[in-house]
Specification:
98% of the residues lie in helices and 0% in strands. It is mainly alpha-helical and 122 residues long. It has one domain. The model has no long low-confidence stretch (mean pLDDT 85).
């Protein structure tokens, strides 16, 4: 009986040693799996964040391009208006020059007429 008790005791010790060693492996495996899951989730979160950032970047680029087109269109319209205003101003300047010439001619005629009248009076 004593041999059986020793045998059972040794068997119990072996079982405890095997169980504790097995639990340690399972624990390490669980830690490794948890670590891998966390890394995977982190990688997915980074990828999703990058996708969102890129989508926002594209949205901002489109808005900038749209605004640039509007500004360019506005510049074209403004250039046309400025050109039209310049043409009108040039035309008005020509008219003023013509009026000034006619006024000068009239003044010369009036002066000539006054000289003739003064000559006649003498």
């Amino acid at each position: 009986m004593s041999k059986v008790k020793v045998f059972l005791g040794a068997l119990a010790v072996l079982v405890l040693v095997a169980f504790s060693a097995g639990c340690g492996l399972v624990s390490d495996q669980a830690k490794q799996q948890a670590r891998e899951k966390i890394e995977d989730r982190g990688q997915q979160a980074r990828q999703e964040a990058n996708k969102k950032v890129e989508a926002k970047r594209q949205e901002v680029r489109k808005k900038v391009d749209d605004l640039r087109e509007k500004v360019e269109a506005g510049q074209d319209e403004l250039k046309i208006k400025v050109d039209d205003a310049q043409k009108k101003l040039d035309d008005l300047q020509k008219r003023m020059d013509d009026v000034q010439k006619k006024l000068d001619e009239l003044l010369k005629k009036v002066e000539a007429q006054e000289q003739q009248n003064q000559n006649k009076e003498k």
